[in-house]
Design brief:
The protein is of the alpha/beta class and about 230 residues long. Helix 3 links the parallel strand 8 and strand 9. The chain has eight helices and 13 strands. It folds into two domains: about 130 residues, D-Maltodextrin-Binding Protein, domain 2 (3-Layer(aba) Sandwich), CATH 3.40.190.10; about 90 residues, Periplasmic binding protein-like II (D-Maltodextrin-Binding Protein, domain 2, 3-Layer(aba) Sandwich). A five-stranded mixed beta sheet has the order 4-1-5-13-6, sandwiched between helices. Strands 7, 10, 11 and 12 form a four-stranded antiparallel beta sheet that branches. The protein has a two-stranded antiparallel sheet with strand order 2-3. This is Substrate-binding periplasmic protein. It comes from Vogesella amnigena. Keywords: Signal.
C-alpha cells in the first residue's frame, strides 16, 4: 500500500520553517508537523511559496496544510490550530543616532515615519495606530535599508528576520530592547485532517509544558515564551 503524502505550503521563515542547504526542511513548525504525521506513517511534502501563492494552492485543492494562515483567507471549511506555537515577536528598529536604548510605548513614535509592509499581519495594537505616518515597504530588507538611509524613522520586525540585514547596515540602525508586540501565527488544515491539527496542538502544549518553547524563543528571539505570549497582540 502506498503511503499517504500531504502537501504543506509555507512561506520560508527562519527559524520556523525553511529548506536548509542540504535540501532538508527544518525549523520548529516543520519538525512538529513531521513528528505528528510520522505517527500515522504519513509523509509530508513541503511547497515554499508566498502566502498568497499558498492560499491559491489551497483553493485549487493542491495543498493540505497552509502554515501561518488566517481563517479569513483560508478556503471554506478549513480548520485553524488552537494551541499557540508560532509567534511573530516584533522589536522596534531605529537609527543608531537615537539616544534611548529601550522601547517604552508606542507614543514614542507619534508623528514619525513607520515602514509598513502591507502583506504582513501586524498585531492589532500596531495596525490600529493613526498617530504615525506609514511608508509602504515591500519586505524586511527594504524596510531596514530605508531606515538606514533616513527614509523612515522606525521599523517593526523580528530579531531573526533583521539579523543579517542589520549587519549590512551596521552602525546606522539599532534594535531597541523590549518587545513592541507579537502576532500569533496559526496553521490551517483542510477538512478531514482533524487528527493532524489535534496532534500538532498536543505537541505544542507539550513543548510549552516542558520548557522547550521557552528555550526556543530565548535562543532565537532573545525573549521568553511567557513574554512573547503576553506581549500586546
Amino acid at each position: 500500500m502506498q503511503a499517504q503524502t500531504l502537501t504543506v505550503c509555507a512561506e520560508r521563515w527562519l527559524p520556523f520553517i525553511y529548506r536548509a542547504d542540504n535540501g532538508e526542511v527544518q525549523g520548529l513548525a516543520a519538525e512538529v508537523l513531521q513528528r505528528v504525521a510520522a505517527q500515522r506513517d504519513v509523509a509530508l511534502r513541503f511547497q515554499f511559496l508566498s502566502i498568497s501563492g499558498c492560499y491559491k494552492l489551497a483553493a485549487s485543492g493542491q495543498a493540505d496544510v497552509v502554515a501561518f494562515a488566517t481563517a479569513r483567507e483560508s478556503p471554506g471549511g478549513w480548520q485553524q490550530s488552537q494551541q499557540p506555537l508560532v509567534f511573530w515577536p516584533l522589536y522596534a528598529w531605529v537609527q543608531s543616532g537615537i539616544a534611548e536604548q529601550r522601547y517604552h510605548d508606542l507614543q514614542r513614535f507619534a508623528g514619525l515615519r513607520v515602514a509598513w509592509v502591507p502583506s504582513y499581519d501586524y498585531p492589532q495594537l500596531l495596525a490600529q495606530q493613526t498617530h504615525w505616518r506609514r511608508v509602504s515597504a515591500p519586505d524586511s530588507q527594504a524596510s531596514l535599508t530605508m531606515l538606514a538611509g533616513g527614509r523612515v524613522d522606525v521599523v517593526f520586525d523580528d530579531y531573526q528576520a533583521t539579523l543579517d540585514i542589520a549587519r549590512q547596515v551596521s552602525g546606522r540602525v539599532k534594535r531597541l530592547d523590549g518587545l513592541v508586540g507579537s502576532y500569533l501565527e496559526q496553521f490551517s488544515y483542510r477538512p478531514g485532517l482533524g487528527w493532524l491539527r489535534e496532534g500538532v496542538d498536543r505537541e505544542a502544549l507539550h513543548l510549552a509544558e516542558t520548557g522547550a518553547l521557552n528555550h526556543f524563543y530565548l535562543q532565537n528571539f532573545r525573549i521568553s515564551w511567557e513574554q512573547v505570549r503576553n506581549a500586546p497582540h
